[in-house]
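task queued by scheduler; priority normal; single chain, no ligands, no partner chains; default sampling; output format set to structure tokens
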Amino acid sequence: MKIDNLSVKISENRISMGIQAASEAAICLKQLLKEKDIANIIFAAAPSQNEFLDALSQMEDIDWKRVNAFHMDEYIGLEKDAPQGFGNFLQRHIFSKVPFRNVFFLNGQAENIQEACREYTSLLQNNPTDIVFMGIGENGHIAFNDPHVADFQDPHLVKVVDLDEKCRQQQVNDGCFANIDKVPTHALTLTVPALYRADYLFCIVPGKTKAWAVNETLRGPVSPQCPASILRNHPHATLYIDNDSSSIFMSK
């Protein structure tokens, strides 16, 4: 179905959802690589992406050596080898599995965080984004653009944000941290415009804990109060949901 400009595809479960999203993403990427020498992709790091990333890493006939990989957010202050680090997550689930041309990591351990933002901004400017693979948070965030910091007209591509309580609790709900006190309070994030400027957006959102956010994304106003709602305005965005994450939306 279509909600405004946004294509919405509902699968029975998260495994079939991940396979469908990966199959369609692979088709898009292979077509891009017919049209240009290098493709640039931004990846989300979250358990919601597990099935998708697993399926994508097994897709055949993708020339990954012509793909630059970026990631969209990172905690500030975690140890470099912390398993909860988003760069480390992506290293485990996709970056180490296929031979990318380059992998560009956000540096949440930088001594000068503002300089890290500027350096990553330059990378994004010099390598315009073709595709974003993303999710939606329980509070409707995309990347770490929680409602209180999301700005659809943000002048920055990368910034430092403080994380709201619902966002931090999600990290506990996902099993990444033992309790909310262990979750960092600040992070680096690509902004809403940094994601929205990509040519293609693939948004993969399984699970009952995301049902409220999916419903708000599709039925609520297009507003920073649900940052993911901006997807409805994008000309080439697809939302992949399963029976669990679509449960509130489909019940109305």
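post-processing summary
- Residues 45 and 143 are 9 Å apart (CA to CA).
- The longest strand covers residues 6-11.
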